[in-house]
Specification:
single chain, 630 residues, alpha+beta, Jelly Rolls, CBS-domain, 4-stranded antiparallel sheet, 25 helices, 15% strand
Length: 630
C-alpha cells in the first residue's frame, strides 16, 4: 500500500479525521488490506469475535441479526469509508451479527491492539465509537421490534408466483343450463365456473354472486343457457407473475377471481380467498370494504386502514413504485365512491363531465393521503339554458365532494387547485384556452400551473373529455421551444440540498432546524426534469417511471441515465414513505422533512448520489436551454 494514499483516504472518514498527523500516520502504517469476493461471510453471528476493525475501501457489506423467529434480518448496509466489526471486537464472547459482502469488497484492517490503544489515547475516537454504538444498538433493536410485528408469511405476496397458488379450473360449455352450472359448483364446492365456447376457448366466468344477483334476485329461469349470465371480461395474470401483480389487477378491476395463464394455456384460477390463505389477510379486503359502504361516514373507518397496507409493504421490502400503485388504486376507489355518493345525493349533472386529478395523484405517486388536487372538465353546453344549469349544479356537487374527501383524510389543497373552485370546474373549451394561454404567455405563474395541471389523468366520468384535452395539449406543445425554455428556467432553480464536500444543505433555524424537505428539494426536481423531457417528446404518460420507460430509447439524456434516474426516484420515494409511516405510527402528522444525520451511512451515501444525479441532469438542461436560462 502507498502510505500517502491511505492517509488521504483516512483523513476524509470519521473517526480517523479527528486524529493528529502523527497518530494518523502511525495508524495508516499499521493497516493491512483484505479482499472479500461478493457474498463472502466476513463475520458470523455466534461465531468467533472479530480480531480487527475493518474500514471499507471499495465495495460494501450488509449487517444481519437473527430474530427470535430464526429469520436473519438486515439491520444496516455499509459502504465506502464506513467501518464494521467494532462491536464484535470489543466483546469477549461470540459475534453479535453476521456481515456479508454485497459486492467485491476491499477493506483496510486495523487489528485489535491498535484499536484499543486508540481508544485509550484519543478521546475523540472513544467519543465517536461510544456515540455510534449507542445509535447502532438503538436502531438495531428498534428494527428487530418492528420486524416482529409482521408475520414472515407476509413477504409471500411478493415472492410467490401466481401459478403456485392457482387452483384447478372447472369449466362447462356455454350451452350448459344455469341449473346444471349451479349443480357443478355445488358438487365441486367452488365459487366460480369458467365458461368455454364450442372451440373450447374460455369466454366468460360465472360466480356464486352472479347466481344470486342475476338469477335468484331477478326470478330468472334456471333453464336458460349459462352464457346469458356470464361475465365476458376475463382478467388474467401470467403464472410467472407475483401474487402482488394479481392483487393489483383484482383491486383495479374490482374482481375476486382471476385466470392464471401459463405458456398461453389456462393453468388455473386464483381467488381473493386463496390470497387470504396465503397471507392471512389481503389488500383486496380493503377495496371490498370501500365498495360495501354507502355513506361518507362509512368510508371514514375504512380509509384509515390503508396505513396498515403501507406498513406491510414496507416490511416486505417492496419497491416504492409497488407501494404507490397499491395506494393509488385504493385512494382512487375512495374518491370514486365519494363521487358516486355525491351523484346519488345531487343527481346526475346536466352535462357529461370528467373528474380529473393532477399532481402526485395524476402521476399515481401518492404516498399517504395527499392534498386534494382535482378539477372537472365538462362538455361544452349546447345552449344558454344548459350552461346555466351546469353553473347551478356543479358548485353544490363539488362542495359535497370536497367536504367528503376531507372527512376521509384528504386535506384541502392550500393553493385551492380543486374542482370546488369555479376556476377549475370548466367546460372543455375553457380548459383548452387555459392551456393555450399558459403556453403562449409563459409567465412564472403560467409555468407553475403547467407544472401542476399537465400531469392530469381522468379518474371518473366521461374519460373521452380528458383524452381530447390530452390530444389538444400534445398539439399545442409541439414546437414551443420558448415555453419549454421558460419551464426549464423554473425547474433548474430548484436545486437539490447538497453542497460541496458531500454535505447536505439543511435549515439553520426554526421548526425544521437540521432538516430539509425531501419532497420539495429532492423528489420535485427529479419529477420536473422527467416531465420536461416528456413534454419535449410528446409523451402521453403521466407517471414518472412510465415516462422514463417511454423516453428510454428516444431521448438522448434519458437513454444515458435511465437506470440511474429510476433508481434515484425509487430510493427517494421509499425513503419518504418510510419516514412518513414512522411518523404515523407515532401518531404524528406526516411531513417530508428529513434529518440526514438520522439516516444510516448507506442511506446518506445513496441520497447524496441521487442529488448529484439531479444536479447533473439540471446542468444538461441548462446547456440545452442556455439562451432562456436566467
Amino acid at each position: 500500500m502507498i502510505l500517502e494514499e491511505v492517509i488521504n483516504f483516512l483523513k476524509k472518514e470519521p473517526p480517523f479525521q479527528f486524529l493528529d498527523d502523527a497518530t494518523l500516520k502511525s495508524v495508516a502504517g499499521s493497516l493491512s488490506m483484505e479482499f472479500y469476493p461478493k457474498d463472502t461471510v466476513i463475520l458470523k453471528q455466534d461465531g468467533p469475535p472479530s480480531d480487527s476493525l475493518r474500514i471499507i475501501k471499495k465495495g460494501g457489506v450488509k449487517v444481519l441479526m437473527r430474530a427470535e423467529s430464526g429469520e436473519d434480518v438486515v439491520i444496516d448496509y455499509r459502504g465506502e469509508g464506513d467501518n464494521f466489526g467494532f462491536l464484535s471486537l470489543i466483546g469477549r464472547d461470540k459475534g453479535k451479527t453476521t456481515v456479508i459482502a454485497i459486492d467485491d469488497t476491499i477493506c483496510y484492517t486495523l487489528y485489535k491492539d491498535k484499536v484499543l490503544k486508540l481508544l485509550e489515547t484519543s478521546p475523540a475516537v472513544t467519543e465517536y465509537f461510544m456515540s455510534y454504538l449507542s445509535r447502532y444498538v438503538d436502531r438495531t433493536y428498534r428494527e428487530m421490534q418492528n420486524r416482529s410485528i409482521f408475520r414472515s408469511s407476509d413477504r409471500f405476496l411478493f415472492t410467490t408466483p401466481a401459478g403456485d397458488i392457482a387452483t384447478e379450473v372447472i369449466t362447462v360449455g356455454e350451452d350448459t343450463t344455469i341449473q346444471e352450472a349451479a349443480q357443478v359448483m355445488v358438487k365441486n364446492k367452488i365459487s366460480s365456473l369458467i365458461i368455454r365456447d364450442k372451440r373450447n376457448v374460455p369466454v366468460g366466468i360465472v360466480t356464486d354472486k352472479d347466481l344470486r344477483e342475476k338469477v335468484v334476485a331477478k326470478g330468472r329461469s334456471a333453464s336458460e343457457p349459462v352464457r346469458n349470465i356470464m361475465t365476458i371480461s376475463l382478467i388474467r395474470v401470467d403464472a410467472r407473475d407475483s401474487c402482488f401483480d394479481a392483487v393489483l389487477k383484482m383491486i383495479k378491476y374490482n374482481i375476486h377471481h382471476m385466470l392464471v395463464i401459463e405458456d398461453g394455456d389456462l393453468k388455473g384460477i386464483m381467488t381473493n380467498h386463496d390470497l387470504m390463505l396465503l397471507q392471512g389477510t389481503s389488500p383486496l379486503s380493503f377495496a371490498n370494504d370501500i365498495e360495501n359502504q354507502q355513506s361518507i361516514d362509512g368510508l371514514i373507518a375504512v380509509s384509515t386502514k390503508i396505513n396498515n397496507i403501507v406498513g406491510l409493504l414496507l416490511k416486505e421490502g417492496a419497491r416504492a413504485s409497488n407501494i404507490t400503485k397499491i395506494i393509488t388504486e385504493i385512494n382512487d376507489r375512495l374518491v370514486k365512491k365519494v363521487l358516486e355518493i355525491a351523484e346519488r345525493q345531487h343527481g346526475h349533472p346536466p352535462v357529461p363531465y370528467c373528474w380529473i386529478v393532477f399532481g402526485s395523484e395524476g402521476r399515481k405517486e401518492q404516498t399517504f393521503k395527499t392534498d386534494q388536487d382535482n378539477a372537472i372538465i365538462y362538455s361544452d353546453p349546447e345552449s344558454e339554458e344548459e350552461e346555466e344549469e351546469a353553473k347551478k349544479f356543479f358548485p353544490g356537487f363539488t362542495s359535497f365532494v370536497k367536504e367528503g374527501l376531507i372527512k376521509i383524510g384528504f386535506p384541502l389543497c392550500p393553493a385551492d387547485y380543486m374542482a370546488s373552485n369555479p376556476q377549475w370546474c370548466q367546460p372543455f373549451n375553457v380548459w383548452k384556452r387555459h392551456f393555450a394561454h399558459w403556453i403562449s404567455e409563459p409567465t412564472p405563474e403560467a409555468v407553475l400551473k403547467s407544472l401542476i395541471f399537465f400531469d392530469f389523468r381522468p379518474l371518473y366520468g366521461n374519460f373521452s373529455l380528458a383524452e381530447k384535452l390530452r390530444n389538444a395539449l400534445k398539439s399545442m406543445i409541439e414546437g414551443q421551444g420558448i415555453f419549454l425554455g421558460h419551464m426549464a428556467n423554473q425547474i433548474v432553480k430548484n436545486t437539490p440540498p447538497v453542497g460541496f464536500f458531500k454535505s447536505f444543505v439543511v435549515e439553520k433555524t426554526g421548526e425544521h432546524k437540521d432538516e430539509f424537505n425531501l419532497k420539495v428539494k429532492g423528489l420535485t426536481p427529479l419529477v420536473d426534469v422527467v416531465r420536461l423531457f416528456s413534454l419535449e417528446r410528446g409523451i402521453r404518460e403521466t407517471s414518472t417511471l412510465g415516462r422514463i420507460k417511454a423516453l428510454r430509447d428516444i431521448h438522448p439524456i434519458v437513454k444515458q441515465y435511465a437506470d440511474e434516474v429510476e433508481q434515484a426516484f425509487e430510493f427517494i420515494m421509499v425513503l419518504r414513505i418510510d419516514h412518513q409511516f414512522g411518523q404515523i405510527r407515532e401518531n404524528r402528522q406526516p411531513d417530508n422533512f428529513i434529518n440526514p444525520n438520522k439516516l444510516s451511512n448507506i442511506e446518506r451515501k445513496t441520497l447524496r448520489e441521487a442529488f448529484h444525479l439531479i444536479s447533473k441532469l439540471q446542468g444538461q438542461i441548462i446547456e440545452i436551454y442556455k439562451p432562456l436560462i436566467t
